[in-house]
Amino acid sequence: MSTRPQLPVEKISPNALTKLSAFHPDVVREVSEAVARHDVVVVGMAQNPFVKKVRKALSDASIAFTYLEYGSYLSGWQRRLAIKLWSGWPTFPQVFVRGQLIGGEELTKAAIADGSLQKTLSQPRQ
After folding, report:
1. DSSP assignment string, 40-88
2. Residue 53, Cβ neighbours under 10 Å: how many?
3. Does this model's pTM top 0.70?
């Protein structure tokens, strides 16, 4: 499995690291705590049709989830940017299953369709 290139921490100045860690830490903490506490978490934003579609797909599959919403197309972009920096995922929704980012709407629907999401949820929590 290949990973996308990421700037190594040692290539970021101490002042920049301080700024990064101070960029909406409350939002990052809220999301990371929800991801640790709940089996399925959807992080999204108002007015986004892909967020609505993934929530409907999960509901239709009778998969319970926790939903966290951060602004809309008109507001909250900085809080959403903090989440993107934390997760490394560039868009919303961001769907987490048992602490693992599985992706957005397309990958979540695929995991529902192939049964892998349900299989993960049926296994004991680690």
Report:
1. EEEEE-TT-HHHHHHHHHHHHTT---EEEE--BTTB-HHHHHHHHHHH-
2. 16
3. yes
What is the chain's pLDDT, residue by residue, as a tens digit (126 residues)?
678 888 999 999 999 999 999 999 999 999 999 999 999 999 999 999 999 999 999 999 999 999 999 999 999 999 999 999 999 999 999 999 999 999 999 999 999 999 999 999 999 887
Question: For the chain, what is the largest distance between any 2 Cα atoms, rounded to a whole number of angstroms?
Answer: 47
Residue 47: CATH number of its domain: 3.40.30.10
Number of domains in the chain: 1
